[in-house]
Amino acid sequence: MAEKETKPKAEEPKIDETQESRLHHKELEKKELKEDVKEAKAESESKEAEAKPLVEEEKKKDRPERTGIAYIFTSPNNTMIHITDLAGNTLSRVTGGMITKHSRLKADPTIAMFAAKKAAERARDLGITSLYIRSKAKTNSPGFGPGGHAAVKTLGKEGFRIISVLDTTRVPRGGPKKKGGKRGRRV
Fold first, then answer.
1. Contact, 107 vs 79, CB < 8 A?
2. Which of 3, 66, 75, 182 is deepest in the core (most CB within 10 A)?
3. Superfamily of the domain at 66-167
4. Residue extents of the structural domains in the chain
5. In degrees rounded to 5, what are phi and psi of residue 124?
6. CB 121: neighbour CB atoms within 10 A?
7. What tens digit of pLDDT does each residue of 159-176 get?
8. Structure pTM?
9. H and E: helices and strands count for the chain
């Protein structure tokens, strides 16, 4: 039988001590860099957290209080929110139809909430801090549409100071002559 020849194994490259110490130093430097980055992030986050409340308090003190009027019209089919300044100049006007593409959802309380948020955002950008709310329903209707209360509630949650809420729904007193003639409708 033939004997298998054994090949000498390839020797691992020898790393001298200087190379070994260099590699060790590079690893240490990488670890130190990672730690420094973590510390810097932690410091910047803590500084931001401290600075934000101070900046917000200063802004609140510096800003004069501006008042607006929010007209909320709710019907069984839609919700309209119109925010003006005290002179009557329109600051923002949003309807349920601008929020959703489904016409059956225009009067939904959720859609009214989103419409109020959008209107409030625009008004806040223009400096309005407090609101008079004038809510209105269709003439002779028993109450507001489904989105009325949700819109008022959302404006309060958006950070506006609500001065008053007033129902301005028109109520007919007598009204025009009813259809049907002198003797009424004959069946």
1. yes
2. 75
3. Ribosomal protein S11/S14 (3.30.420.80)
4. 22-62, 66-167
5. -65, -40
6. 12
7. 999 999 999 999 888 888
8. 0.61
9. 4, 5
